[in-house]
What does this fold into?
Amino acid sequence: MEEQTNATSWLDKEVEELDKQKKFTGEKLPALQFEENKIVTFTIDFTNPFETYEDTANNCTKAIINVTHKEEKKILWLNKKNPLYIEIVHAGRLGQTEFKVMQVGNKANTKYNLVKE
It folds into this structure.
């Protein structure tokens, strides 16, 4: 019995960490998906601040951005340190609400570029 307790004691710490995380209380929506080398157009409503999620596994804070894509409400999850997030916030501050983004690369080499016309 003691061996089993020791073998699963890491679960106590894991549960403790999970319980510390802020729970997402927003509307459950599908995630906005990007495809390599394709432009995705969406709009963002900047009326309210974005909710955030503390991703303890990756040691980062993610913004939960409500978007409209092809007339459907979706969520864009972005690390707040991601250059795309920074560009979106600056553009939103200037009144821009429609965005076009292209994914370049994939997996570890993925980058998102804001397409400017």
